[in-house]
Amino acid sequence: ALLRTGRRIGALALGVAVLLPAVLPSLDGGLLRGDDGEGAGGGTISAVNPLVSLKENLTQAEDREVLRYRTNAPDGSGMYLRLVSLDQFDGTSWRTSVRGVEDVPERLPRPVGLGERTGTTEITTNVSAAGSYEQKWLPMPYPATGVRIEGRWRYEPVGRMVVGDEGQTTSGVQYSVSSLVVRPTPEQLAVAPTAPGALLREYTRVPKSLPPDVRATALRVTAGARNDYERAVRLQDWFASKGGFTYDTTVSSGTGVAAISRFLKDKEGFCVHFSFTMAAMARTLNVPARVAVGFMPGTPSGEGTVSVSIKDAHAWPELYFEGVGWTRFEPTPSRGSVPDYAAPEAPADELPEAEEASPSPSAAPSVQPSPQDDCTARAAGAEDCAGPTPPGARPPADTDAASAPVLPLVAGAAAAVVLSLAPMLWRWRVRVRRLRGGRPLAVWEEVVDTAWDHGVPPDGALTPRGTAGRLVRAGRLEGAAAEAVHRIAGAVEEPSLNRYRPLTMPSSMPATAGLAGCGTGSL
């Protein structure tokens, strides 16, 4: 059975691997290698995909540690470890912008927007990553002011992110991060001046496809707010406690405008839905916003250390306030901690309850049907998981008494045949859609699902390259077939750090493709 599985995986991989050169730049050489072939100097970060598979990890029975840390922070509840920021929203997903990278400076520059009057305390955090934790993005408290680490690492100054170069990952690394605990007061945030024009324009953009009900709901939730700070807190509290939302990892995934509209209607979702939707709503109110992805503070494990596991992975919105900089908020109920500066001070009855706008049929996109009960965990990671249930034929009325007993039998047999073919037809439709587009991530998902079809379930704790090795071993692939699997996995990872230019594809690879939960081993 494993050999047959291997042959099918290999055949699929070979078939699509030959198409990759047509849509991707060369993937030979270093991850961030420049024209001179060296790893140092400038470069760019293109779209990143640090979150390949989340939902399976969040719902798996076994939790696994990804790192441990020690810190001298006075309060550990705010020790979020940030990986990456998603600052572009094009209507289909949130993603990272194409940014320049440079050598990691000895001292990182002061965060943009942080004024001298805002209280700060510098702390030190020593981190030890597990050997099984392979990620190119370095988890750090925000905002970091310095990093001491061995290996090949680069720095992206706009998002204040550190990323591995030339195949460098976090596996087994030990490093020390100095960072600031920023302590703004509600009064400071309330009187923050308007953000600089360029920043305001960049971080308040929303796609034209965003349904009008998103902004209408934001206006109702924040009615009576006197400034951007009050608007931010009211949005946060509406999601976290006052709006009737439920934290639920079983809902269908999605990161585009349709998913946001569906989330506002159904009021069920996980950290992705809460953070993406709050950031989008803040932007409609002209409040600069982006989304951060990383880990919650973790769990004390004795002797002063804190353990962070795959199920601590999280996404949260960051809103910009001049004089303070990018500021964390926590809209997801039962996850993380609300910062002191964002805790509501007014009694609940003083904040107006929001009424949701009823989206007009012409303006709002059609809401997809809810997932069917038999939708598998992997299919729930795709927006079209819950395809239409195959209809059973209702027998037409017949006045012929002799044929009456026969018709139910025929209808029942036909329905049984249709239902038995439904899984196959659904998989065929998903496969055609994935392979037609030629996108590396979609092709990779098809390779992984093909393996799952034949008894090799995915392990979300592995990176694409790690998964490729596992599939090659499980299927006993050799030669061109094994090379094809590794090549597709490499195409998923490598373009995220292409030094030359964004992918020459119809659209750059989304940073959140496949994002479907808040716990991950692929972070």
TrEMBL record:
Transmembrane segments: 406-426
Skewed-composition ranges (Acidic residues): 347-356
InterPro entries: Bact_TGase-like, Papain-like_cys_pep_sf, TgpA_N, Transglutaminase-like
Keyword Membrane among UniProt keywords: yes
Region (Disordered) location: 332-400
Pfam families in the record: TgpA_N, Transglut_core
Sorted UniProt keywords: Membrane, Transmembrane, Transmembrane helix
Positions with biased composition (Low complexity): 357-371
Domain Transglutaminase-like intervals: 263-333
Keyword Transmembrane: yes
Protein name: Transglutaminase domain-containing protein
Organism from which the protein derives: Streptomyces somaliensis (strain ATCC 33201 / DSM 40738 / JCM 12659 / KCTC 9044 / NCTC 11332 / NRRL B-12077 / IP 733)
